[in-house]
UniProtKB/TrEMBL annotation:
Name of the molecule in the record: XisI protein
Signal sequence, start to end: none
Top-rank taxon, per record: Bacteria
InterPro entries reported for this sequence: XisI (IPR014968), XisI-like_sf (IPR035943)
Regions annotated as coiled coil: none
CDD domains assigned: XisI-like (cd16382)
Upper classification of the organism: Bacteria, Bacillati, Cyanobacteriota, Cyanophyceae, Desertifilales
Pfam family, one: XisI
Length: 106
């Protein structure tokens, strides 16, 4: 798939999650689509039980005709959503995982 198609799919998936209503608190979900730099995010902001809530729920970058999942804070993850919309698995990079297994100091 080309970058324009991947961009449309990413925006579709993030927009789906943005329509959800958080189960607690007064929390707003905002989409952030930067098509110039190919950066896409779902942000949360608001209050829950007297505490401020803010941060990324999803952060994706597009580069080299691949989707880089930089952060996926959704309960079941969004990888299957991307696959269901036709994105080949070799065009999805789980960038939040290290490329090489971490060596444990012992």
């Amino acid at each position: 798939m080309d970058t324009a198609t991947l961009r449309d799919i990413v925006k579709q998936v993030i927009s789906q999650y943005a329509r959800l209503t958080p189960s607690h608190g007064e929390i707003r979900l905002d989409t952030v689509f930067d098509e110039t730099q190919n950066r896409y995010a779902l942000m949360q902001t608001g209050w829950s039980q007297g505490c401020r809530v803010r941060g990324n729920l999803i952060y994706i970058t597009l580069q080299d005709e691949r989707i880089y999942l930089e952060y996926d804070g959704m309960e079941q993850g969004i990888t299957q959503d991307l696959l269901d919309l036709g994105v080949p698995s070799d065009q999805i990079v789980l960038a939040f995982l290290p490329e090489e297994p971490l060596a444990l100091a012992g």
